[in-house]
Specification:
The chain has 820 residues and is mainly alpha-helical. Helix 3 packs parallel to helix 5, helix 8 packs antiparallel against helix 9 (150-163) and helix 17 runs antiparallel to helix 18.
């Protein structure tokens, strides 16, 4: 919604007439041709932008005005650069001049002009042409004019390659690789501007070059990198920084460019790799052939590297640059910002090493000593966790080829990272992204991964809304036959884990409460040695120490006051979603024995949950749905777990507290406890089940509910009656007992309201259902076919059966309803 003043301006801009617009254009052209541009020019440009952007139709400006606006892009005042770029983006370029700006004025390219150039590239062909022009502009030397535009050329070139990497040709790759080598490896090693030598005459001639310095203040003895410091930088030093910032993206981009000399280049690279590895040096005597400088010494590395093709030479120089950065990162920086810069450069350097080693396997053996030493130096300091993740990526990609032991890396990544850094949100994002990108490799090569779910779930327990999408994707990979039961318990205890993590953080910053003082009882319990084992089990680092603990009810009592903490409530809301994913996954990998165990866990844990509002009902709803699915796919589970199911169904208290899952357990018993589903189902088992359900039904329909409990829901009562009728239809000796109960039920309800059902409509529905079942049981043969129909009736395939007339009728109906 716009304000009244804004709407008025927009309406005026839309309603402006063409003659008035032409007069405004003429005034603006004269204004822009003046020597000094003031507030009037700013106001006029802003008004022009409103006029152009207020309508959905794109306008064309007069050539003279468009030329003035393009010239204004090079104005020293950034305000005019912004306004002219915004206005030109709202217009169409003049016919036949779509690429004129990029061809003629690259020397004036800046950020705002770059945005205009990209916005006017209307097709892939335009992007390809723009890419070629940008690359040609990089060939200009400082003697050809100011080189300031190069600092803007690289970012826009990087953007073009992001959108359209296929616009590169082999010649483009060669040129860009040569330029990056020159900027990365051969930037000047003196500070920009120089320092006065002293005395009365301190002109330009008396200024002496000052060498660049390292972050610890010492004079740099090697080539310039992004971690070198000085009072000011020269142009080629700025290009060094820009080149490093886009190096990794460039290395990834040029892989897609086809190379007709792949075989020759590969052979040449392999021939030179041994000499490079033996004569590798960080010496600065290797100068670029581009600047034509003469050096006094040439190292063996330099001689060998000159024999390489441009792409391979860029990889070699990138390798040296990254190793130099790793060496510089060991220096003690004087400022915190420089320390952060060291960490950021280490992340980029290791990622670039990973990329070049992925292209050239010969570099793996040269890089691993450096990476291994870096890991040994940083592994004890978790403040470098963001650096250690790329190192882990390097080990994952190349550790098998180099035959190195990666166990210490994975123990750190899947051990200490989640255990100690679960509350670092940015690290959690990067860590889970690392797992998602390498999921298949981690499952195959890292045995610690599948056992680390108690640790990994700490990220979810601490910050559920931010990472739940990651765990929706990751959870199936954590479900294995060996860990499924423990994982189910862990998911159900996620709210407890969330509360425990909060208590762990608070215990380090809150004082111990004094005797008689008011404090958090849960925090005191967390600090108590008596309950320490319960919390340590929740905080365990890997699976295998046991599926669950014996004193869960005690733990839930201690965490009662945490049930309304926002972090715990948010965590509880994610559990039902993850449980659906868990059961959908486990059905595909579990055998009959494991599924039977899971059914037992569901029945046990339905009463052992942290008391969070709505949480228990949601979990019961999930259990109910998947209990039906499990029993439908494997009906023999009902016989396998008949003892546990009957014990659950025989507890009258479950009718009032767990009506959702209780109803489904009763339905499963009545539906699948049959000889047609499992030959082990005997008459004795059917009778035992009948007696159990009969006792419960008689008890809840003959007395009022317990104090504090509501009346049983009608669905529970009707499910019990239906289950009894189904069981009786399979053992006809039980029919008289069911019929007697149903007739008594009808007689009792005729006398008026009953204590166990307060709603008259519900009572009518129950009685109606009872009369229907009573009528069915009068004919046992019909009752069995209706209540327990055979397989062809429950899953008909008449549409595909050639022995019946249904296919012919369907075809005839199709022909009639579809027009010819």
């Amino acid at each position: 919604m716009y304000s009244h003043g804004s709407e008025s301006l927009i309406n005026q801009a839309r309603e402006i007439q063409e003659p008035e617009l032409q007069r405004f254009h003429s005034r603006l052209v004269k204004l822009l041709q003046g020597k000094e541009l003031g507030h009037e020019a700013v106001d006029s440009l802003q008004r022009l932008h409103i006029i152009l952007s207020a309508t959905k139709y794109t306008r064309t400006l007069p050539p003279e005005l468009q030329g003035s606006l393009q010239s204004l892009l090079a104005s020293p005042a950034e305000q005019f650069q912004v306004l002219s770029s915004a206005v030109l983006r709202e217009t169409l370029p003049l016919s036949g001049q779509e690429g004129n700006y990029t061809q003629e004025n690259f020397i004036q390219l800046n950020n705002h002009a770059a945005a205009l150039v990209l916005s006017q590239a209307g097709s892939r062909a335009d992007l390809s042409s723009l890419c070629a022009q940008l690359l040609r502009s990089l060939e200009s030397r400082q003697s050809d004019g100011p080189a300031a535009s190069l600092t803007h050329t690289l970012p826009i070139l990087n953007t073009v390659l992001t959108h359209s990497p296929d616009c590169l040709t082999e010649d483009h790759v060669t040129l860009m690789s040569k330029k990056l080598v020159d900027w990365l490896r051969y930037a000047s090693i003196t500070q920009g501007g120089g320092a006065p030598s002293g005395g009365f005459f301190t002109g330009t001639r008396s200024r002496q070059p000052v060498p660049i310095a390292e972050l610890d203040g010492t004079v740099s003895g090697d080539f310039f990198t992004v971690l070198c410091v000085g009072q000011s930088f020269t142009e080629d030093q700025w290009m060094n920084v820009y080149s490093f910032s886009m190096l990794r993206h460039w290395l990834i981009t040029y892989r897609s460019v086809s190379n007709g000399n792949t075989t020759a280049d590969t052979a040449n690279r392999l021939q030179l790799s041994l000499s490079l590895s033996l004569s590798h040096s960080f010496s600065n005597d290797d100068r670029s052939e581009v600047d034509g400088s003469v050096v006094s010494m040439v190292s063996a590395t330099s001689s060998s590297s000159r024999l390489l093709p441009p792409k391979e030479r860029l990889r070699e120089k990138a390798f040296q640059y990254c190793q130099r950065l790793i060496e510089q990162s060991d220096r003690k920086a004087h400022k915190k910002t420089d320390t952060d810069l060291q960490k950021a450069c280490l992340v980029e350097a290791v990622c670039i090493l990973d990329s070049v080693c992925g292209e050239d396997a010969a570099l793996v053996f040269r890089a691993f000593p450096c990476i291994k030493a870096l890991f040994g130096r940083l592994s004890s300091d978790l403040s470098f966790a963001r650096v250690l993740l790329p190192i882990a990526q390097f080990y994952l990609n190349h550790g098998e080829m180099a035959a190195v032991d990666c166990e210490s890396v994975w123990n750190l990544v899947f051990g200490r990272f989640p255990a100690e850094l679960f509350d670092h949100q940015f690290l959690a994002h990067e860590f889970l992204r690392f797992i998602r990108l390498n999921l298949e490799s981690l499952q195959l090569r890292v045995p610690q991964y599948s056992r680390s779910f108690p640790n990994l779930l700490k990220f979810l327990a601490w910050n559920s809304p931010a990472v739940v999408d990651d765990f929706v994707d990751l959870l199936p990979s954590l479900v294995t036959a060996g860990t499924a039961v423990e994982l189910l318990h862990t998911l159900l205890d996620l709210p407890c884990l969330s509360a425990t993590l909060v208590l762990q953080v608070r215990s380090t910053c809150l004082p111990i409460s004094e005797p008689g003082g008011r404090g958090l009882l849960s925090l005191d319990a967390f600090r108590s040695q008596s309950f320490r084992g319960l919390f340590l089990f929740l905080l365990r680092g890997e699976a295998g120490s046991g599926d669950t603990i014996d004193r869960l009810s005690t733990l839930h009592e201690m965490l009662t006051e945490t049930a309304d903490w926002p972090r715990v409530v948010q965590c509880a809301q994610t559990v039902p979603v993850l449980l659906h994913i868990f059961f959908n996954t486990v059905i595909a990998i579990a055998d009959q024995k494991l599924l039977a165990h899971l059914v037992q866990v569901m029945l046990e844990r339905s009463s052992l949950l942290l008391n969070i509002p709505k949480y228990n009902k949601e979990i019961h709803r999930v259990f109910s749905r998947h209990l039906l699915l499990l029993c439908k796919l494997h009906p023999s589970l009902v016989v396998d777990q008949s003892h546990e199911l009957l014990e659950f169904a025989g507890a009258t208290a479950n009718v009032y507290s767990k009506e959702e899952i209780y109803t489904h357990v009763v339905w499963v018993l009545g539906e699948y406890l049959s000889g047609s589903c499992d030959s082990r189902c005997s008459v004795m088992l059917i009778t035992s089940c009948f007696e159990t359900l009969e006792a419960v039904l008689f008890e809840i329909t003959s007395s009022a509910p317990p104090p504090g409990a509501d009346c049983p829901v009608p669905r529970v009562v009707t499910s019990l009656m239906s289950a009894l009728a189904k069981l009786a239809s399979r053992s006809h000796d039980l029919i008289p007992r069911v019929s007697l109960f149903l007739s008594k039920l009808r007689t009792v309800t005729r006398g008026g309201p009953v204590a166990w059902c307060s709603d008259e409509e519900d009572l009518v529905a129950i009685v109606t259902r009872g009369e229907e079942l009573w009528s069915l049981l009068k004919a046992p043969g019909v009752a069995q076919s209706v209540l327990t129909p055979p397989q062809p009736v429950t899953t008909p395939q008449w549409h595909g059966d050639t022995n019946v007339a249904m296919p012919l009728q369907l075809r005839a109906l199709t022909n009639l309803t579809h027009s010819q």
